[in-house]
Amino acid sequence: MVGGALTGDPEQLVTGLAGIREAVPGDVSFVASPKYQPAVKTTRASVLIVAPDMDVAFGGALIRVDNPSEAFVRLAAQVAPRPVSFRPGAHPTAIIARTARLGKEVSIQPHAVIEDGAIIGDRTIIGAGSYIGHESRLGADCLLYARVSLRERTIIGDRVILHCGVVLGADGFGFETVGGKHRKIPQVGHVEIGDDVEIGANTTIDRGRFGRTRVGQGTKIDNLVQIGHNCAIGDHCLICALVGIAGSTIIGNQVTIAGQVGVAGHLTIGDKSIVMAQAGVTKDVPAGAMMLGAPAMPHKEFKRVNAAIQRLPETLAKIHELEQQLAELRARLTTAS
């Protein structure tokens, strides 16, 4: 199944798949990173998929492949339950406006609402309880899980996956303070999502104040991410969970933003940069940079700063010792004079 080279007992019975720490006898597991090699000593797995050059002390069978992670995914696909399928057609409880246009083999699940002027592409699936706003457009082969909400004029490309609770096109957080009161600024733009984008559960992307908020093709966004109005996210980015991106921020192509990062508004994050976990970005990030810390700084600089902080007790003790020596030296000089 995985095209690997076997070392060990070819008659080993395989009964399941599991992570290396959770595996029990009969399971196949894998080691894709050297950091998991210590777990090899304690795993109960019977078979491990490893890289050709990985030095592994393991009593069970080994299968050596070029990419252990990809091989394990391929193996899992062979034995996993079949994915849930949805028949074409609209459930009787769905509410579909007369002016909405549905493509071929579209599937509309129970209690979904499709408003006037909406366009749904071929073979797209609209999950139970989802809402497709007025004049929104969805491409072909999209999958919207239950309770996805698209406000008016949202534009979705082809092969987009939206997980449960995604909200696209809600109003941006825009207010003006007049006479001590917060007055709402109209949000009249829209959200546009490129082809092959996947957006995780309960993520929200606000409509533009004017113009659009855009996510480029191939970008993958995790759960519980907030993207503010008029942001522009480039192609093939990775945005992990609990990230917050304030309005009008421009993020380049192939950018990685790790978990719990906060990004201030009206910034630019350059192509292929990496913002590491829990960073607070308050300034523009150049292309290719690796940023860490709050406020975010180049990760090597952050490591030096953090190392200095870790040594503060010893540093303070040394300073105190030097101050005592200096006081003694001054006392001697005063006596000698």
The CATH architecture of the largest domain comes to: 3 Solenoid
Question: Could you list the spans in which at least 5 consecutive residues all have pLDDT below 50?
Answer: none
Counted by DSSP, the helix tally is 4
Q: What CATH first level of the largest domain would be assigned?
A: Mainly Beta
Number of domains: 3
Mean pLDDT: 95
Strand content: 25-35%
Q: What is the rounded Rg?
A: 28 Å
Strand order of the largest sheet: 6-9-12-15-18-23-26-29-32-35-37-38
As a percent range, the share of helical residues equals 10-25%
Q: Please, what is the CATH homologous superfamily of the largest domain?
A: Hexapeptide repeat proteins
Shape: flat
N-to-C span: 90 Å
Pairing-aware structural class of the strands and helices? alpha/beta
CATH topology of the largest domain: UDP N-Acetylglucosamine Acyltransferase, domain 1
Summarize the biggest pleated sheet: 12 strands, mixed
